[in-house]
């Protein structure tokens, strides 16, 4: 025992996990050491960081965090005894990438294809934001391509282990899906069916934005099942509420998705966390 407090973990010690972010893409030594110093005392930890809520699954001393490359985060644990004595563990730090030799590796690998695609993405985003609803078939193709690219990229990253250019392959798959989705208008001539993809894209984006605000406050979403069920349920609720007015909903969805597509390439270039929203 120390000062009357037993070191036995069963003696009533309460452990609280804390984490704090540092400014985006700030790799300076001054910020690094200042961030660690801010997590060295109990009062400073409480004032400058957030409590990491307990995970609903896994060991009691395990916490799960989202990882954002290039965005530093400091972690520490505070142990508090029933007597009121507190002890702060040595903080740990990560940028979620290797900054030893080159901080540029923390961002997206800016190949020539990625640079060209980013430029096209910004242009297409502006187009569908302001004019997409006037060119219906073009908008269908673009929205279908976005959906196909996103879904195929997720599956490629998760299940393909070989070193390939996932972005290029996903883009090709997305364009094929865009052609298939556009053909639904020629085959069925159903406006309701045709606007499903634009509306679904929009409400997936809205749901992702809402989740990005509360993700660290709701530990229930650390379960993949809970996350995806809630994500798609909210998206589908928004979708079905919008179907009675397909024209107005399609215009609004095109504006929201187009605006985000315009901002994302800029965010990727400057290293902003906006790109991590969706």
UniProtKB/TrEMBL annotation:
Pfam families: Ig_TM7SF3_N, TM7S3_TM198. Keywords: Membrane, Transmembrane, Transmembrane helix. Residues 119-276 form the TM7S3/TM198-like domain. It is a multi-pass membrane protein. The chain crosses the membrane at residues 107-128, 140-160, 166-188, 195-213, 225-243, 255-277. It comes from the Eukaryota. The lineage of its organism: Eukaryota, Metazoa, Ecdysozoa, Arthropoda, Hexapoda. InterPro entries: TM7S3/TM198-like_dom, TM7SF3. It comes from Triatoma infestans. PANTHER family: TRANSMEMBRANE 7 SUPERFAMILY MEMBER 3 (PTHR15937). One of its GO terms (biological process) is negative regulation of programmed cell death. This is Transmembrane 7 superfamily member 3-like protein. It is found in: Membrane. One of its GO terms (cellular component) is plasma membrane.
């Amino acid at each position: 025992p120390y000062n009357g407090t037993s070191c036995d973990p069963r003696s009533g010690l309460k452990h609280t996990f804390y984490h704090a972010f540092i400014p985006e893409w700030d790799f300076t030594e001054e910020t690094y050491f200042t961030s660690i110093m801010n997590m060295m005392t109990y009062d400073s930890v409480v004032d400058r960081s957030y409590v990491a809520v307990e995970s609903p699954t896994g060991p009691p001393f395990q916490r799960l965090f989202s990882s954002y490359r290039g965005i530093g985060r400091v972690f520490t644990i505070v142990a508090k005894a029933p007597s009121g004595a507190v002890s702060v563990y040595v903080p740990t730090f990560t940028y979620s990438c290797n900054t030893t030799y080159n901080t540029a590796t923390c961002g997206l690998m800016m190949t020539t294809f990625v640079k060209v695609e980013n430029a096209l993405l910004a242009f297409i985003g502006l187009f569908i934001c302001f004019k997409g609803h006037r060119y219906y078939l073009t908008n269908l193709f673009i929205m279908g391509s976005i959906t196909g690219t996103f879904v195929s990229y997720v599956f490629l990253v998760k299940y393909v282990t070989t070193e390939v250019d996932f972005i290029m392959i996903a883009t090709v798959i997305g364009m094929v899906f865009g052609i298939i989705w556009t053909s639904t208008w020629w085959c069925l001539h159903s406006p309701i069916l045709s606007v499903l993809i634009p509306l679904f894209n929009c409400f997936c984006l809205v749901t992702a934005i809402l989740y990005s605000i509360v993700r660290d406050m709701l530990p229930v979403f650390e379960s993949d099942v809970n996350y995806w069920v809630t994500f798609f349920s909210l998206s589908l609720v928004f979708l079905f509420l919008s179907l009675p007015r397909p024209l107005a909903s399609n215009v609004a969805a095109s504006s929201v998705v187009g605006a985000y597509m315009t901002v994302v390439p800029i965010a990727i270039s400057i290293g902003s966390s906006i790109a991590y929203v969706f």
